[in-house]
Amino acid sequence: MQKQIMGVAALGAALAIGDASHAQAVQWKVSDGGNGHWYAIDLSPMWWSAWNDRAAHLGARLASITSVAEQERVEVLIGPMSNGGYPQLLWLGAVRRDCSWAWTSSEVWEFTYWSQGNPNGGCTDAQLGIFVNQTLPQFNLGWDDCICPNNGEPTGAVLEWSADCNGDGIVDYGQCRDGSLPDYNGNSIPDCCEQGTACVVGSYPVQWRVSDGGNGHWYQLSPALRTWPAARAFAEDLGGHLVTVNSADEDGFVVGLTTVPPPGSGRNCWLGGFQQEGACEPACGWTWVTGEEFSFTNWLPNEPNNISGDDKYLNIWITGQWNDASPWHTAESVIEWSADCNNDGIVDKGQILRGQLADTDNDGIPNVCECVCDVFRDFNVNGIDLGVLLGQWGPANQFTVTDFNGDGVVDGSDLGQLLAAWGPCPN
Questions:
Q1: What DSSP string describes 204-271?
Q2: What is the mean pLDDT of residues 279-301?
Q3: H/E element holding 9?
Q4: What's the rounded Cα separation, in Å, for the pair 241 and 85?
Q5: Number of neighbouring beta carbons within 10 Å of residue 418
Q6: In whole angstroms, what is the distance from residue 273 CA to residue 276 CA?
Q7: Average pLDDT, whole number, for the chain?
Q8: Which of 67, 78, 192, 310 could bond to 199 as cystine, CB 3.0-4.6 Å?
């Protein structure tokens, strides 16, 4: 079929790029004439059958090309790879069996873009590849029927994500990437679909990934209307805290969680800032619930203004900027999880969500970190902890860590609690 030229610049404008752990993923937006699917090039060398399995493991499949526009899109995705230093070809998602070609996606086999002289394998079983490193233009970016492993060698692949397991008209991969659907095991398949539960877009904790310039913390919008003190207590009951915003980048991430259609509209939500008692009005004494320095701000014009006479709690207004609000005001809230109680460099909330740390009482704190009598932090209550307790026997002070019941003295009550917890901490 003769190729119809589509402007590369125009097609490039139709692509939106996002990171993926294994490759750079590209969406062809429906609003730009695409199909809403996501695509990636992965250069890991494998045979076609191994790549077919690997793609499924990633929640994807080997790409199918069913139109001139899609061929053009793949060419833009490959881009400078055709200039040399890359494999001879990349796998696509089609096979020839009994003289007939078929896409593994079950799409209709109609459009083709064979390179000169191909297909040339007759009726022999074959897999489909696209040439990406040929000096002759009649071969470059055309298709090849590869009778492998008898010819060629292991190579990379073009991947495509098209699944929409919850039937909301949006490809799951993008929703897993932006956190609007949960994918805590990282296989690009929404966890709610794997578990057979209803998928409610936007109701899940979302990580601000370090790879995206974030801090590795987890965030969640809580839509229930509460006063600021009630919202703070609710967040802390879940093992988190009302969100603290320490940079323009973090502010942008939080605003993204609170934005609703149309663009530029948002929710009225509590943040984790408050004004200390007795501070001069309206701008003195603002602090974060975590004790972090209150340095970055994004106040609305003429805010804070203490308009009610008691506006001492921090609120993000529907415009995405900040406002001081009163104790009786109710709003939604944003929760942040930042704790790393076992000091492994990973925020605990993510490990709980992924099933790596148990949290049997669902309080957002891993079981292993609720072993309060393990003061030596070796995940066992033993003689070392007992020695610390005996060394601190008597009135407690700011350095005391064994006043387990918080009554101001280390005594027999604390000793009894330690002995009752003797042994390995719960998993």
A1: S-EE--GGGTS-S-EEEEEEEEE-HHHHHHHHHHTT-EE----SHHHHHHHHHHHEETTTTEE--EEE
A2: 94
A3: helix 8-12
A4: 50
A5: 22
A6: 10
A7: 87
A8: 192
The model carries a pTM of 0.68
pLDDT in tens, 357-382: 888 888 888 988 888 899 887 888 99
Per residue in 353-362, pLDDT (tens digit) is 988 888 888 8
pLDDT tens across 145-176, in order? 988 665 567 899 999 999 999 999 999 999 99
Q: Is the pLDDT of residue 6 over 50?
A: no
Q: Helix or strand or coil: residue 386?
A: helix
**Which numeric CATH code is attached to 8-161?**
3.10.100.10
Cα separations in angstroms, 331 against 32, 123, 319, 322, 362:
37, 67, 14, 13, 24
Which CATH architecture best describes the domain 206-337? Roll (3.10)
Choices 1.10.1330.10, 2.60.40.1930, 3.30.1360.40, 3.30.70.890: CATH for 371-424: 1.10.1330.10
Residues linked to residue 196 through DSSP beta bridges, in sequence order: none
d(CA 337, CA 9): 42
Distance CA 28, CA 76 (A): 11
Question: What's the Cα-to-Cα distance from 416 to each of 9, 230, 280, 408, 411, rounded to whole Å?
Answer: 74, 34, 47, 16, 9
